[in-house]
Amino acid sequence: MPVVDVSWRDLERLVGRRLSWEELEECLAKLKCEVEEVEGDIVWYEATHDRPDLFSAEGLARALKGLLGVEVGLREFRVSREERVDLYVEGPSYRPYALGAVVRNLRLDDEAVRQLMNLQEKLHVTYCRDRRKVSIGLYDLDAIRPPIFYRSIKPGDVKFVPLDGEEAMTPAEVIRRTEKGRAYGHLISGYPEYPILVDSEGTVLSLPPIVNSEETRVTEETKNVFIDVTGTDPALMMKVLTVVATSVAERGAPEELVLVNVHAGGKVVVSPDLRLEVREVAREDAARLSGVELSCEEMAHCLRMMRHGAQVLDDRVRVEVAAYRVDILHTVDLVEDVLMAYGYDRITPEPLPPTHAGRISPEEYISRKVRDIMVGLGFQEVANYMMSCPDLLVRRMRLKGVELVEVENPKMERYTALRQWLLPGLLSVVSFNKHLGFPLKVFEIGDVAIVDPSSDVRARIERRAACIVAGPEVTMTDGLVTCKALMRSLGLTYSLRERSHPSFIEGRCADVLVGSRVVGLVGEFHPEVLSNFDIPVPAAGLELCLRALLSELASRS
After folding, report:
1. 134: burial class by Cβ within 10 Å (0-12, 13-18, 19+)?
2. CATH number of the domain at 280-346, out of 3.40.190.170, 2.20.25.90, 3.30.56.10, 3.30.450.20?
3. What is d(CA 244, CA 253) in angstroms, rounded to the nearest whole number?
4. Is there a contact between 395 and 503 (Cβ–Cβ < 8 Å)?
């Protein structure tokens, strides 16, 4: 986790009042930060990796104001309604994206500049993956003539004086001769064109992700700053830009944020994204998650101390989350903020409840029961990895427009998404084992991930059971017989309702219903699906949701 050093005097200036050692230590503990060392005016503390807004004195001071009652609730930033800066993006294909922001009316000194540079480097090392995914640049806006252009150039096309340099160099020379060039040149040196950031008069701002230009250096005299982020991950870039822009704005007197119109691919994106995220926290949910009974008014007060907007609505609290709080992903994160402001030291310890004999969960119980039944029916169990890819889950199954839970930064093409059903994996197993001869009867019991916008995490996990029968004489009847035997063994009465599904032959697919509830589907696979998996014989499949079956069993007991 990053270790941040701040000046005590600078921190007091940003907070707006004197700080005692006890106050600082207590507040840092509430923010999950740990004091590492104190030497003279400098305090070193370890910040948690999920709070990049605390990687510098500016963000720490903003948080301290809330905990100390100096300024509570949302930090509202002044955004210019008249001015916009244009950024035109035509970068190289291997590093195609760029975003920007402008902060005006700053009051900087040597310590302020040092803090902003430190924030930049702390983000580079952590979130930006050592500049591989994102690189950040800060420039003196008064040395720039907008609009600004992010372009590709040949390694010897232009010359500029790199930061801390004394002579003009080409990009190729910068990589070869400067310290930053030797450290980060490998990110671009293998390509025929390099990214460059220039203004309307051709002044070079930087050679991202290597080094800025000396001509646009930020100094104590700088009043207005342009911030750019370039890289390969637009979502991460926007988060990083928002953290940097809002931190720089804390040096305003007062600040004025200017939005940037980013022109790329015929579209215009506005950055930074300062929109608030609105969530609601029910008092009952907070008590269940934390074990602490607080009123909605107490919860709202604690959330305001953590610099959220909070409004009581009956038995819940409406929370406005600032854009720079990139760590707030779920309700549990807001409950944690409530407890941090409330104080863990105020929570009364309770004795552990008496121990009792453990037991398997209902979901595991029905999984075991279905497993025993399927083995008794002559099926062989297999276990596939939950991660898969759209090609297997969607294209080969003749599906279109299916929303998957996808990995943001996959390492392997085979594992880019979580499976949303089990049958594609079973078809792969049949394909890989066709040399053993037919018929083949395989089944799997496992979890799938379903996109669910109503869930806190935008997805839910379901336990399912699926099976496939493949052989020269197989028809849909084989799937129906298996379904009948399984449901009868579970003691469930079911019915079938014909349905159309691209993965199955028309007229040979049905929903499985218990009462009026759909609990699964059964059908004979379409020849094109079998061809996509290189399976030379007909096959029938059945897939059931075990949670739905469990619910129906519970309602009948």
Report:
1. buried
2. 3.30.56.10
3. 17
4. no
Q: State how far the alpha carbon of 330 is from the alpha carbons of 62, 89, 340, 360, in Å.
A: 22, 34, 16, 28
User: CA 489, CA 475: separation in Å to the nearest integer?
Assistant: 22
In the chain, how many H helices and how many E strands?
16, 26
Helix (H, G, I), strand (E, B) or coil at 502: coil
CATH for 362-556 (1.10.3720.10, 3.40.50.1470, 2.30.42.10, 3.30.930.10): 3.30.930.10
Burial 316-325 (b: 16+ CB within 10 A, else e): bbebebbbbb
Would you say the pTM of this structure is higher than 0.70? yes
Q: What are the pLDDT digits (tens) for 307-342? A: 999 999 989 999 999 999 999 999 999 999 999 999
**Residue 426 reports pLDDT greater than 80:** yes
Residue 353 has pLDDT above 80, yes or no: no
User: CATH: 3.40.50.300, 3.40.50.800, 3.50.40.10, 3.30.420.40. Which one for 81-271?
Assistant: 3.50.40.10
- Residue 557 confidence (pLDDT) above 70: no
Question: How open is the CA angle 242-243-249, to the nearest 5 degrees?
Answer: 85
- Residue 501: pLDDT band with limits 50, 70, 90: very high
- 91 phi and psi angles, rounded to 5 deg: -80, 175
Do 87 and 151 form a contact (C-beta atoms < 8 A)? no
Are 115 and 218 in contact, with CB atoms under 8 Å apart? no
Mean of the per-residue pLDDT values for the chain? 94
Which overall architecture, per CATH, does domain 3-67 show? 2-Layer Sandwich (3.30)
Per-residue confidence band for 2, with pLDDT thresholds at 50, 70 and 90: confident
How far is Cα 294 from Cα 335, in angstroms, rounded to an integer?
A: 11
- 8 Å CB contact between 440 and 382: no
Beta strand extents in 232-383 (DSSP E only): 252-264, 267-271, 277-282, 309-313, 316-321, 380-381
Nearest-CA neighbor of 25 among 156, 481, 11, 258? 11
Per-residue pLDDT tens for 59-70?
A: 999 999 999 999
Q: Dihedral of the CA atoms 87, 92, 93, 94 (nearest 10)?
A: -110
Report the C-alpha gap between 54 and 61 in whole angstroms. Answer: 9
Task: Decide if 248 contacts 219 (C-beta within 8 A).
Answer: no
Read off the DSSP letter of residue 434.
G
- Would you give the distance in Å from CA 382 to the centre of its chain? 32
How far is Cα of residue 400 from the mean position of the Cα atoms in its chain?
25
pLDDT band at 356 (very low <50, low <70, confident <90, very high): confident
